[in-house]
Amino acid sequence: MVTTLFVDLMSQPCRALAIFVKMNAMPCNIQTVALRKGENKTPEFLSMNPLGKVPVLKDEEFCLTESIAILRYLDTKYGSSCLYPKSIRARAKVDEFLEWQHTNTRMFAAKVFLGEVLFPGAINIEQAVNDMNAMLDSVESMFLKDKNFIAGETVSVADHFAVCELLQTTISGRDLFKDRPKLQSWLDRVRKDSNPHFDDVHSVLYSVRRRYIKNKL
Ligand SMILES: N[C@@H](CCC(=O)N[C@@H](CS)C(=O)NCC(=O)O)C(=O)O
């Protein structure tokens, strides 16, 4: 019996999980739940996640929420390759970032996206951008200080969870990689080592971004 991963690819953690499933060729269906159409509020969806959030994983009658828990469930069920390493220390370095990202890359990048795209005027953008820049300084000075990827010398889920959050802020036309050559070359490496799946999963974001920027001009 194959599992089903319910996602909206406009959601950052959903994209990271979709890349994980695709790069590891896991026998897991990826099914879209369109948040903009309220498909996450139907009784059927709420029976899987009463909080009405994506991603959700369904494996027969078993339902699981929270992207990091889903990642670990899929890894345990199917076993994964280099994206979530098996060796104790390599995995611990990926986990270190996965713990950190909730209150850093996710929190600060999402705030800028919400304030610029979803709820303009509701958030102090200058403050949000300052907070995001402090977070980016930490990514560069700690996680990317002396290695090519967040958790070592090969791409891992840590990079995908980070990049998916950062790219969300580019929908408004903001280029947070400008003036940050270290971050830009890391993004280029992550994308190169994760394609074609990376661009495939981001194709919705790319087209929303094109439309958003065109309408703004
Ligand atoms: N901590 C959760 C976050 C899930 C989450 O916030 N999902 C958002 C999309 S990024 C959502 O479904 N929002 C819809 C809503 O709140 O109505 C995870 O990592 O899975």
What profile does the largest beta sheet have? Answer: 4 strands, mixed
Question: With helices defined by DSSP (H or I, 4 residues minimum), what is the helix count?
Answer: 8
Number of domains: 2
Structural class based on helices, strands and sheet pairing: alpha+beta
CATH class of the largest domain: Mainly Alpha
Strand order of the largest sheet: 2-1-3-4
- Quaternary structure of the protein: single chain
What layout of secondary structure does this protein have?
Elements: E1 3-7, H1 12-23, E2 28-32, H2 43-48, E3 56-59, E4 62-65, H3 67-78, H4 88-118, H5 125-143, H6 157-168, H7 181-194, H8 197-216
Parallel strand pairs: 1-2
Antiparallel strand pairs: 1-3, 3-4
Helix pairs in contact: 1-3, 1-6, 1-8, 4-5, 4-6
The protein binds glutathione (GSH).
Overall description:
It is a single chain. This protein has 217 residues and is an alpha+beta fold. It folds into two domains: 3-78, Glutaredoxin (3-Layer(aba) Sandwich), CATH 3.40.30.10; 88-216, Glutathione S-transferase Yfyf (Class Pi), Chain A, domain 2 (Up-down Bundle), CATH 1.20.1050.10. It contains eight helices and four strands; from the N terminus they run E-H-E-H-E-E-H-H-H-H-H-H. The longest helix is centred in the middle third of the chain and has 31 residues, at 88-118. The termini are far apart. The structure holds glutathione. The site of glutathione has 11 residues, from helix 1. Glutathione (GSH) binds at residues 11-13, 35, 40, 52-55, 66-67.
